[in-house]
Amino acid sequence: MALSTASESRRAGPQDPMPSVSTHDSSGAKLKNFKFVFVTGGPGSGKSTQCAKIVENFGFEHLSAGDLLRAEQNSGTEIGNMIKDLIKEGKLVPSEVTVKLILKAISESTNDKFLIDGFPRNEENREVWDRVTGLKPEFILFITGSEEEMERRVLSRTGS
């Protein structure tokens, strides 16, 4: 499994603290200063595995876009029901919804360092993140693996 970042010479860690960024809610009230890294890669590439190691060694909080969507879907809220209906119809959840769920999780956390796993998945996701938040990640961690290994890992999850 190969790891690469947008900035190969930069290392995230205690000896090289990332600059903080801040965000505001829709009313303009400041939420908090925080640092974040996007973690992307194909299904079964090892995103969650690597995130767990980074959490353990560097104190980041791991936010999985998929987990946030599933939790909201099961919450019984209006947004959760909308997500459930979209998925039932085979449609994608709007990027704005995912961005707002990520920002909500960040604002509710006591941590100030986040790994955002599985987001953005495409250029449209990134454009919506930029438009809604105006924030840039410190870097993007892109995790790759062979097609065979990723397929093996995904199939092992389902018991196939």
Automatic annotation (TrEMBL):
Residues 1-27 are annotated as: Disordered. GO terms for molecular function: AMP kinase activity; ATP binding. InterPro entries: Adenylat/UMP-CMP_kin, Adenylat_kinase_CS, P-loop_NTPase. Gene3D superfamilies: P-loop containing nucleotide triphosphate hydrolases (3.40.50.300). Keywords: Kinase, Nucleotide-binding, Transferase. PANTHER family: NUCLEOTIDE KINASE. Pfam families: ADK. This is adenylate kinase. It is an enzyme of class 2 (transferase). It comes from Physcomitrium patens (Spreading-leaved earth moss).
